[in-house]
Amino acid sequence: MNEDWNEFDSISPYSDEEAVAALGKLADHPVVSEVSKSLFPKEKEDYLRNVLKNIKSIDEFQTLVMAKAVAWVLDHTAHNFSYDGIANFKKINGRFLALSNHRDIILDSAFMNVMLDNAGFNTTEIAIGSNLLIYDWIVDLVKLNKSFVVKRNLPVRQMMEASATLSAYIRDRILDGKQNIWIAQREGRSKDGNDKTQVAVLKMLNLSGTKDLKSNFEELNIVPVAITYEYDPCDALKGYQFQLKRDQSDYKKSKNEDLT
Predict the structure, then answer these.
(1) Longest C-alpha distance within the chain, in Å?
(2) What is the DSSP string of 75-112?
(3) If DSSP codes are grouped into helix, strand and coil, which group holds residue 140?
(4) Using CA atoms, how far apart are residues 236 and 242, in angstroms rounded to an integer?
(5) Could you give the strand order of the β-sheet that contains 180-184, starting from the edge strand earlier in sequence?
(6) Whole-prediction pTM
(7) Dihedral through CA 85, CA 87, CA 89, CA 94, nearest 10?
(8) What pLDDT sits at residue 1?
(9) H/E element holding 181?
(10) Distances (CA, A) of 44 to 29, 161, 195
(11) 95 contacts 177 by C-beta, under 8 angstroms
(12) Which of 3, 5, 101, 202 has its CA at 20 to 30 Å from residue 233's CA atom?
C-alpha cells in the first residue's frame, strides 16, 4: 500500500484535525442559523452554531449533524424508505466499493449511508465531482462528510494523471481497511433512465491494479447498488435542461446548474 499520502491531499476528505478548523469557519456562515431552525426547531437559533464549534471528529459531525439532516429530509419529503440486500454486505471480508446508479447529487449516497449505519456498518466515503465545488463552504461541507474529489474538465494528460491518482486512492482505502467507498457508475446523473455502467469508470478502477483484470476487480469487493425514487428528485431540473438544449443550439450548462 502507498504510505505517501501527499499525492492524495488534493482529493481526500478532511482528517479530524482539519475538520475542527473547517467546522469553526463553517459555524459562522450566515445560513447556519436558518438550517438550525429547520433541523432543531425546539432549540435556540444559535444551537447548530454551538454544536459545530464543539465537534471534535468527522464521526461526531456525521452523527450530530448529517444524520439529523437526512432524517429531516426523510420526515418531510418521503412517505416510505425501504431497502433490502443488506445480507450481501455481511458476506464481504473487509471494506467494499459500492458501485451505484445515480439520480441525486446528495441523496443517493446519503440514503445508502443511513442503511449502512442502521445495519451497524461504517458509512462510506463518497466520490463527488469537482464541478460541484464552486464555493468554499461547499468544499468544507463535502469534505467534512467524508467525500473525496473526482477531478473534472481537465486536459487529456492531466485527466489521465487524475484518474490514476483517484484509482490508487480508492484501492488504498479499501485494501488497507480504512474505509468503504461509494461511487456512481457513470459521470453525472442519468437523465434517460439508462443505468449502463460507464466503461471509463471501470478503466479508472483498474488503473491501480497490479494483477490480472479479474483479480484487480475482485480485491475491491465491488457491490452493485441500485437506488430508486417514486419521483426523481431532480426531474424538474433535468426537464428544464432538456428544453434548453432543444431550443438553444449554443446552450452551455453553467456551473450553478451542476450544483442544482
Answers:
(1) 58
(2) HHH-S------HHHHHT-SS--EEEE--S-TTHHHHHH
(3) helix
(4) 10
(5) 147-150, 124-129, 180-184, 97-100, 222-225
(6) 0.88
(7) -170
(8) 47
(9) strand 180-184
(10) 17, 48, 44
(11) yes
(12) 202
